[in-house]
Amino acid sequence: MKVALSDSQSGLAGADLPRDIEVQVYDQFMNPVENGTVRFIPLAGGLVDGSPSFSDVTTNGLGIASARWTLHSDTTTDSLAATVPNFATTPDTVVFVAFVNPGRADSLAPASALSDTGKVNTFLTNRFTVKVFDSLGNPTPNVPISFSVVSRPLGAQRDSLSVYNVQTNSIGLASTRLHLGTKLGTYQVRAFAASTQPTSILFTGVANQPDSADTLIITKGNDQTGTVAQQLADSIQFKVTDQFGNVNSAVTVNVSALNGSANPSTGTTNSNGLFSTAWTLGQTSGTQRLVASLPSFPAVVSDTVTATANPDAADSLLLVTMRKLPFDSVAAVPGENITFVVEARDQFNNLKPNATVRFAPEFGYNALFESNQLVSDDGGRVSNVVKTDASRSETFFRASIAGIDTLPLHIFHIQYVAKSLRDTVISPGDTVSFRLQLRNTSPNPVTLDTSNTILSFNDGAHSFSAALNGAVTLPANGSDTLRFDSTVVDSNFANTTYTPDLSIKGGAADSLLSGSITLPINSLSIFNVRVTQITASVIKVARGDSFTATMRVRNEGPETVNVDTSQTTLNIPGLAAS
């Protein structure tokens, strides 16, 4: 017996070989044996003529017996034996082999875990792998597989695959590796094979870890307005994210209040990457600041949180200036208008806008204010004007915040010293150097403007004025003499009494002091004393003799004139007389 045909064929698993298996039986003389029986026996699980055990086939006229061999279902080498039952042959048994190839790709299945997790912008540790099988479950090589990322979180970038198109290997496997994108969330990868059922497998990559903390964002509470030393209405909230905007949880945040205090000043972000703190403002009004930082990432610092701290309620009044002097007691001319500025402050000494300030004279004094009530400006200040009480030697008044604080203010009037004017009796045409005294009752010295402090009077047709002859500073709580330039009295002045006026102008720091003092009524007299007749007791007199001369004088003024005999002389050329 010998193999006649079809040994070592290749075929698909579970399928018939392309050609039947044949053996030829000879007798001892090498003649074909007709009508002999040949038994075909599957050795590895295949079928012969549809039978899994054996098939007996009768040889034809050429001594040939043939059988249909259906290969077994896996891809291992299959074998089939042929023998002549009840006869000894050489060889006794003929063994056929067949090489089994997998069948057509039929199914696609995952060969790895369907999901994996990792950090954004990194490759997952595990690969996504599929396996292709034929209909009998045999791995199928050389099947084209395509991989693609079919969904990603909103806004994600940089996701990719290590392999996009590949053929299954010798054991039917194909794989790729997912590089996660920049956003936390789910990325889906599809493996696709055109000829299988199903045609695709979905794998899931989950980016559940953000990158390192990179940014500290202010999400709530910036640019609030509050009151000094009080907690802001809204908490300050920060959000920690990585470089891609993903939130970082469980990150320690330190808060530094550059003004006031934060509570808590340190803590960790929640699952949404958020951390909140309450900010109590400092005691200074204006812009206040707070920043946050990450101690584990020193380079990460938030933008500066700012808040506007408004002053607390008005608590006190302070004088700024009175007639631009920083004193609560100043000198003034009676009846002078004095501008003064006060400011309202809170308990922390912050300037307080919109505070209502009232003004009133002290008991027993009269003072007229431009406004009896004012509201402080944005700088906490009010400016007012008071007209001093000309009937008194001083004007005392106060500024107040209702029920809280009172600021006493004092104006001391510059006064003419009674009967200090010299000269008080003059004649038209005289050259006069007037002088008088002023008293300064304030606690501060007062400098006068030499050229603009003027003594004057007039008769309606003619006028007289004289400026100070030199610098004068009235001492604090004291008096000084004012001396005026020597000035000619117009010879046409009417003979009568006059009431001089003293115009006072301050100098240096007192340059805003300005006003006039009217001297007592009729304190100055102007008139002529005319010699109307001179007679002698004799007409002629010898040298060495005595004689009497009589002079008649006419007083043309309203005042009695006392003659100083020691100063009254008669001059005769060549003689001396008294």
Can you lay out the helices and strands and say which pair or pack?
Elements lengths: L1 E4 L3 E4 L8 E4 L12 E6 L4 E2 L6 E4 L5 E4 L1 E2 L7 E6 L9 E9 L3 E6 L4 E5 L8 E7 L9 E8 L8 E2 L3 E3 L5 E4 L1 E2 L5 E8 L7 E10 L5 E6 L3 E4 L8 E6 L10 E6 L3 E3 L2 E3 L5 E7 L5 E9 L2 E5 L3 E6 L5 E7 L6 E4 L4 E9 L10 E6 L6 E2 L3 E3 L5 E7 L6 E8 L3 E9 L1 E2 L8 E2 L4 E2 L2 E6 L5 E2 L6 E5 L4 E5 L5 E2 L3 E6 L3 E2 L7 E3 L2 E5 L8 E5 L5 E3 L2 E8 L12 E7 L15 E2 L2 E2 L2
Structural write-up:
The chain has 578 residues and is an all-beta fold. The protein has six domains: 2-101, Immunoglobulins (Immunoglobulin-like), CATH 2.60.40; 105-209, Immunoglobulins (Immunoglobulin-like); 215-310, Immunoglobulin-like (Sandwich); 316-411, Immunoglobulins (Immunoglobulin-like); 415-526, Sandwich (Immunoglobulin-like), CATH 2.60.40; 530-576, no CATH class. Helices cover 0% and strands 48% of the residues. It contains no helices and 57 strands. The strands form 17 sheets. Strands 22, 24, 26, 28, 29 and 30 form a six-stranded mixed sheet that branches. Strands 2-10-9-4-6 form a five-stranded mixed sheet, with no helix packed on it. 33% of the residues are buried.
